[in-house]
């Protein structure tokens, strides 16, 4: 069932691409430069525009159908659990560096090692 819906979905996608490419460009991409002001009316839908809407609706319907089929066939276990792969151990928290490593380097006139307190 899923394969049939998937094939119909792919055919709809190709048909939708073809129908959109066949339509005449009206220019003014994103509404820029279309002009006409507020009195400009929309032209009536052509046959290609109606076919585009029908194909788009069918494409969305097959997309939702494929989603429902995939959700029904999904398992509650992980793929790694089904393969028997052991899970990775939890990462350990990083340890804090010692306080001496956080100090800035000594100045040129200071000794490299601190004096002993004997």
From TrEMBL:
<feature type="compositionally biased region" description="Pro residues">
    <location>
        <begin position="103"/>
        <end position="118"/>
    </location>
</feature>
<dbReference type="GO" id="GO:0065002">
    <property type="term" value="P:intracellular protein transmembrane transport"/>
</dbReference>
<keyword id="KW-1133">Transmembrane helix</keyword>
<feature type="transmembrane region" description="Helical">
    <location>
        <begin position="51"/>
        <end position="71"/>
    </location>
</feature>
<dbReference type="GO" id="GO:0015450">
    <property type="term" value="F:protein-transporting ATPase activity"/>
</dbReference>
<keyword id="KW-0812">Transmembrane</keyword>
<keyword id="KW-0813">Transport</keyword>
<feature type="region of interest" description="Disordered">
    <location>
        <begin position="83"/>
        <end position="118"/>
    </location>
</feature>
<protein>
    <recommendedName>
        <fullName>Protein-export membrane protein SecG</fullName>
    </recommendedName>
</protein>
<dbReference type="GO" id="GO:0009306">
    <property type="term" value="P:protein secretion"/>
</dbReference>
<keyword id="KW-1003">Cell membrane</keyword>
<keyword id="KW-0811">Translocation</keyword>
<dbReference type="GO" id="GO:0043952">
    <property type="term" value="P:protein transport by the Sec complex"/>
</dbReference>
<dbReference type="InterPro" id="IPR004692">
    <property type="entry name" value="SecG"/>
</dbReference>
<comment type="function">
    <text>Involved in protein export. Participates in an early event of protein translocation.</text>
</comment>
<dbReference type="GO" id="GO:0005886">
    <property type="term" value="C:plasma membrane"/>
</dbReference>
<comment type="similarity">
    <text>Belongs to the SecG family.</text>
</comment>
<dbReference type="Pfam" id="PF03840">
    <property type="entry name" value="SecG"/>
</dbReference>
<keyword id="KW-0653">Protein transport</keyword>
<keyword id="KW-0472">Membrane</keyword>
């Amino acid at each position: 069932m899923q394969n049939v819906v998937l094939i119909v979905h792919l055919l709809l996608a190709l048909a939708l691409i073809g129908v959109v490419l066949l339509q005449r460009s009206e220019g003014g991409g994103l509404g820029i430069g279309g002009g006409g002001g507020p009195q400009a009316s929309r032209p009536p839908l052509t046959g290609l525009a109606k076919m585009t809407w029908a194909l788009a609706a069918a494409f969305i319907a097959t997309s939702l159908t494929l989603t429902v089929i995939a959700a029904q066939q999904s398992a509650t276990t992980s793929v790694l659990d089904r393969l028997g792969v052991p899970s990775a151990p939890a990462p350990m928290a990083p340890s804090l560096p010692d306080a001496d490593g956080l100090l800035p380097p000594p100045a040129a006139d200071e000794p490299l090692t601190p004096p002993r307190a004997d």
